Structure to design on (682 residues):
């Protein structure tokens, strides 16, 4: 393996289509991206999943003979030190890898990351950031948290806003990201208790380029680069948005005209529907980034297939290349005194 | 005016396009639906907005010379007894009307409804229900609350579930509505503090046909007839969903092929895009129904034009015809002892 390349540990056993789809995605990444891959899991199963017998110089298998199943609690993390997600996190802890990707039990991935890697300075609660497309071509918005913290305090949201700002600035290249607080109205007087208190914190934090409340309709508008919310609202939104793409395509199919006009229209539009799906389908983005732990960790969908895993590896590489962790850490001192709650 | 027809008070002064679009919608309803309309507002402005001078036997103007502007607080309700929304509510209170429709200040409409009409038996907090389309043609789901209560206690959500059940049963004709709790996972162990406590209440309430948690992806799936959530999450979702229709159409337009193939495809699909928009656009449903106050009250969008107002009047008529209030009231006794929180 090369010296300075991003080294990415992939939980080969996690996800509905593990290990075969996970491995396919990893192989593609090993060919197309400048990365070293550590496939973590049962060696025999992994080797059986390689469709050709050729060797890949930048893929290595790391043994892990246990798994944490989707129905199991995160207490299993302690009972199964050799679970693939634990072994993958250990690789980051021991500085053998820079990032972990898992499409397995997301609670277990978050738990393992927090327990093994610890949190960055100034961060009480790591958050999962999800990238949504916007109306403006090639412009995305990062929404966080989308599921790590279902009950939040105002200072957690302030920390999410800082992490989102750093991500937007250093990974997405937005010089002064427009940061919004998800809320039910534009006015600062609007919102639930959490939003009202968070609004004040954000207004007074000079490190965060806060521009005000973002309503539901603003998420996809492109008016914001970063939107913060608690993990309950964010998770509901994310899953709703993911489903919308399929719903729209199905309704469109149903509403298309019958007969030859319909066939013609469908034929002409077929390739474009695919492009459309790519823009509205969140899965294309590879997964959520767990921000706030001392290591890059991508939480992919349980339903991830090879393309999602490939995209997740690319996302991890971008986060590594742009030194997201170091940036968050360097701002940690500024956070703490400004969080009275 | 006829004796047994639904009598609907329309706040002619509320909304971005008031009074002209409000009045157009009301005139259409007066022609196409079996209703009597009471147009509430400034008589001169209303009369000037009638495009022809013909008389409508089932439209009456009721004077109200003040308005509550969008930027004003709801304290203005008490300072302006002659505000159109107050006068409209008074008509219901005095049994001169069965329902109120307003596209004006939604907080003022809710406040006036609660203050003037009072709450139904067993209901602590009225909720706004919004009807979403689903993947299944002609099947809708009612989501509540979508904005009346941003901080909720578990028993409020239990009350929303009961009101949604009654609405689904009597207005939408679903014999045993499938009721869900909006949450971040299917398991009863998932959720924030509010969802966890509400899950227990719903499980133990025999009047509510609760079938479990609904995730974000389930909202449009057609698996549920009623979904309950707090008004913060519901409002964010509603506004997100409303925007999605426009976003999809715009992306589709951008992604359509250039040149003659694109023109042909666009031409063929044009009428179908309109049908598609109707299915995904919430505005087509006319607005949200404020459930739990002792009167039918429809909160329409500020941006409502004539078709939305027409749909809102139809929605009000359905609620009146199906005696939604009487049904909720008759279940009130069953609610109170089952709400320990």
């Amino acid at each position: 393996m090369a010296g300075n390349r991003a080294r990415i540990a992939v939980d080969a056993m996690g996800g509905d289509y593990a290990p075969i789809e996970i491995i396919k995605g990893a192989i593609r990444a090993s060919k197309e991206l400048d990365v070293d891959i550590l496939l973590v899991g049962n060696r025999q199963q992994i080797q059986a999943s390689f469709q050709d017998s050729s060797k890949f110089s930048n893929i290595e298998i790391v043994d892990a003979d246990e798994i944490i199943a989707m129905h199991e609690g995160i207490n299993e993390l302690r009972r199964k030190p050799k679970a693939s997600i634990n072994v993958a996190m250990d690789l980051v802890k021991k500085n053998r890898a820079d990032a972990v990707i898992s499409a397995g039990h997301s609670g277990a991935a978050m738990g393992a990351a927090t327990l093994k890697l610890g949190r960055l300075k100034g961060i009480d609660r790591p958050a999962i950031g999800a990238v949504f497309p916007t109306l403006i071509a090639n412009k995305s918005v990062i929404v966080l948290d989308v599921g790590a913290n279902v009950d939040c305090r105002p200072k957690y949201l302030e920390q999410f806003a800082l992490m989102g700002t750093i991500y937007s600035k250093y990974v997405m290249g937005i010089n002064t990201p427009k940061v919004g607080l998800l809320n039910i109205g534009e006015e600062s007087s609007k919102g639930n208790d959490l939003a009202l208190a968070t609004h004040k914190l954000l207004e007074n934090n000079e490190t965060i380029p806060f521009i005000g409340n973002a309503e539901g309709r603003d998420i996809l508008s492109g008016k914001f680069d970063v939107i913060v919310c608690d993990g309950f609202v964010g998770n509901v939104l994310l899953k709703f948005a993911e489903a919308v793409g399929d719903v729209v395509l199905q309704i469109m199919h149903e509403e298309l005209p019958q007969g030859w006009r319909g066939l013609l229209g469908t034929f002409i539009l077929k390739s474009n529907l695919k492009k459309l799906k790519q823009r509205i389908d969140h899965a294309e983005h590879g997964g959520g980034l767990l921000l706030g732990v001392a290591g890059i960790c991508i939480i992919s969908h349980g339903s991830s297939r090879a393309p999602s895993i490939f995209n997740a590896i690319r996302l991890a590489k971008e986060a590594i290349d742009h030194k997201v962790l170091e940036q968050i850490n360097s701002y940690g001192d500024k956070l703490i005194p400004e969080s009275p709650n």
